[in-house]
Amino acid sequence: MTSSLKAILRKPAVPGNTLTEQSTSRGRPYVAFGESSEKTKKRRIEELVLKYTLEELSFAVKELSKKSNSQVEFKEFKKHSLTLQETLALYLQLDLSQRKYNLLRSIINSVHSEFLPSIYKLRQFRDSLLPKDIINTVQGSEINLQQLLDYTLKSILKSILDKEYIKSETLTLTCKYGFDGSSGHSTYKQVFSSTEMTDEYLFLVAMSPLNLSDEKGYIFWNNPRSSSKFFCRPIKFIFVKENSYLVKTEVLRLQQEINDLKPIIINFQNKNYTVNFKFHFTMLDGSCINILSETNSTQTCFICGATPKQMNTKEVLKRPVKIENFNFGMSSLHSWIRSFECLLRIAYRLSFISWQVKGTEKKFQIVTN
Ligand SMILES: [Zn+2]
After folding, report:
1. How far, rounded to the nearest angstrom, does the alpha carbon of residue 126 sit from its chain's CA centroid?
2. Separation of 307 CA from ligand 1 center, angstroms?
3. Quick check: 195 and 167 in contact, CB under 8 A?
4. pLDDT tens digits, residue range 86-104?
5. Cα of 326 to ligand 1 centre, how many Å?
């Protein structure tokens, strides 16, 4: 066995192939043999082809296969290697850094050759899923809502159209949106254009798709975890402390952007789908609701305006309610501690309307509801 052939065939997927970190040397990054282009592969083996005969080379491959059982491994890797989509999901779920991913990849790929793709390919794939026109400034980032929805829809349609045939050509994507501020972040020596801006605070505007349905209300895709950060699509973030002026202007801006949305026509498998949008303004916390409903205190109900003193009197039931504030959700101030548990129990039984759950059919409905 020649040492140079051994070196090529055993070349690790990641240089080093050990638990050490990647080399930080400059220049063109090293690309594993399996991931190189046809041209690069030919260039790398050029020396071997010129130096050795076909007989010698095939004998060397046989010997190497026997030793490392690489033929068996190769077949298994074909069956078990992760797709780019699966790898990206893993990468995001584990919140891996580039260094951690490369370390994990070097260990796994040393057992199952090319089980995980390179970070370069993974980034290329991730970038293909991201909208192109992101406006980045010193104070934050922003994206066009129409473009964001376009990308979101394409991903959803791609995931369902392979499995399901959609008869209807007009669909509706229902989404929720809202915003929230957070504080207590580390401050760096970043220079901002205004004194109001500081990286100690962050204000985020975001949306999340809930479901995709047709005109008859049949749901083709339903968000399995509507409150998960993995389904949350940021629209904008700025380094400003949440305040009433900001909240009010953002609501107006967003509502205008939603009103201006055009239905998206997507061609998939030679069929045109027209998708309309429905938005619910529900991703809000108490402080944002107070600002928008002009309720001065968090202890005052934003629906009937009852203060803590008026809360436990009989007269509270007669108070006029602000119907326009219903879309912010229920005010928890009137609720008893376990009231939501009670509401949930009632909701589970809505399909058969009886408190007692008898019989396997009802028990099954309780579980699936
Ligand atoms: Zn109230």
Report:
1. 11
2. 9
3. no
4. 899 899 989 999 999 999 9
5. 11
